[in-house]
């Protein structure tokens, strides 16, 4: 593994092309450059390099690009979900969250991004005795009372009540992860970090 230094602007540009949590800079660059493992590096002629440098110096317009989506093999998907959750727990972003509610929201966002349909099925049956925990809009959750403090789950169409104790938040995560068939050990570990 080699290390290269990049300026802040380039770093942010590369990071903005992240498709899933835990994706390495090498993976992002390989995808952006359409470089496959084992492919021979092409050595550019000095004139081509100078031309390329000049083109980069000129202002460019951003062109929206649709991300290519490939369907993972069925056997590989559960392993990828587990890996993604483990990477979330080890990430700087997660470690920087100093409030349980922020970690709760980050875990919910990640779970949704891994399997939206499974997440939807898990949240449909998740509710308390007198309140709904998840809904597609704020008003539905406010029917349980103005004190529920509904917040949108980032990157999802869902809202969740946040005025619950940490134990309830852990229970909600546990129920969702069990429904999404995560290993018990990982579920316990994630819940323990909330």
UniProtKB/TrEMBL annotation:
- Where mainly located? cytoplasm
Residues of the Negative modulator of initiation of replication SeqA N-terminal domain: 1-36
Q: Which GO terms describe its cellular component?
A: cytoplasm
- Origin: domain of life: Bacteria
Residue ranges of every copy of the Replication modulator SeqA C-terminal DNA-binding domain listed in the record: 84-192
| Molecular-function GO term, any one | sequence-specific DNA binding
GO biological process assignments: negative regulation of DNA-templated DNA replication initiation; regulation of DNA-templated transcription
Q: Does the keyword DNA-binding apply?
A: yes
| The keyword DNA-binding is annotated on this UniProt entry | yes
Recorded hits in Gene3D superfamilies, A to Z, give: Met repressor-like, Replication modulator SeqA, C-terminal DNA-binding domain
Q: What HAMAP family does the record point to?
A: SeqA (MF_00908)
* Complexes and interactors: Homodimer. Polymerizes to form helical filaments.
Q: Which family, according to UniProt?
A: Belongs to the SeqA family.
- Name-wise, this protein is Negative modulator of initiation of replication
């Amino acid at each position: 593994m080699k290390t290269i230094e990049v300026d802040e602007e380039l770093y942010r540009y590369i990071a903005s092309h992240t498709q899933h949590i835990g994706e390495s800079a090498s993976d992002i660059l390989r995808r952006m450059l359409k470089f496959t493992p084992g492919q021979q590096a092409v050595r550019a002629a000095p004139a081509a390099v100078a031309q390329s440098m000049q083109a980069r110096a000129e202002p460019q317009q951003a062109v929206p690009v649709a991300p290519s989506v490939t369907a993972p093999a069925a056997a590989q998907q559960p392993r990828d979900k587990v890996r993604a959750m483990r990477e979330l727990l080890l990430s700087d972003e997660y470690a920087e969250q100093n409030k349980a509610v922020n970690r709760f929201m980050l875990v919910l966002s990640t779970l949704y991004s891994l399997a939206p349909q499974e997440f939807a099925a898990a949240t449909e049956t998740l509710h308390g005795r007198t309140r709904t925990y998840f809904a597609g809009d704020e008003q539905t959750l406010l029917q349980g009372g103005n004190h529920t403090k509904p917040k949108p789950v980032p990157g999802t169409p869902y809202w969740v009540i946040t005025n619950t104790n940490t134990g309830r938040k852990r229970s909600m995560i546990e129920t969702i992860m069990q429904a999404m068939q995560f290993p018990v050990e990982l579920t316990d570990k994630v819940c323990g970090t909330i």
